[in-house]
Amino acid sequence: MSKLIAILEDDAARILAMRQWLAMRYSMYEQVFFGEAAPLIEWLGDHVGETSLISLDHDLEPPLGSSPNYDSGTGRDVANFLAAQVPSCPIIIHSTNVPAALGMMFVLQDACWQVQKVLPYEDTLWIKEIWGPMVRQLIAE
Predict the structure, then answer these.
(1) Contact 89/32 with Cβ under 8 angstroms?
(2) Domains in the chain with CATH codes
(3) Which of 51, 90, 117, 122 has its CA 20 to 30 A from that of 6?
(4) Side-chain-side CA neighbours of residue 30 (13 Å)
(5) b/e string for 86-98 if b means 16 or more Cβ within 10 A?
(6) Residues 138 and 87 sit within 8 Å (Cβ to Cβ)
(7) What is the tens place of the pLDDT at every residue in 10-51?
């Protein structure tokens, strides 16, 4: 069984809350976080088949100190990449950008990926209340 969880998230508070939740319940899984789309796409090119769960944000901020025109990509870039791959694990889309999240969801569903969507709320409370239980459900399936 695969023991990798890949997450696209650029917000430090969300990353910390996700790491803490996963460490308490899924310490046997390696957590791999990416703040930009391109490095995650490159990583997935080698690891998608051994990944147990993918969680994707849509909107990504450029890293601190990057040039004003720097592009971190979006979760849609990753969704488009995954849509061309053989479905191998469940995906959670976690984004406050509802139209973009729905677009990601549709492109992945059309490619036969198992996809769930979470709408973040109240800083990181949603991670404990909604995202975490969804992770538990999807990994158990």
Answers:
(1) no
(2) 4-140 (3.40.50.2300)
(3) 122
(4) 8
(5) eebbbbbbbbebe
(6) no
(7) 999 999 999 999 999 999 999 999 999 999 999 999 999 999
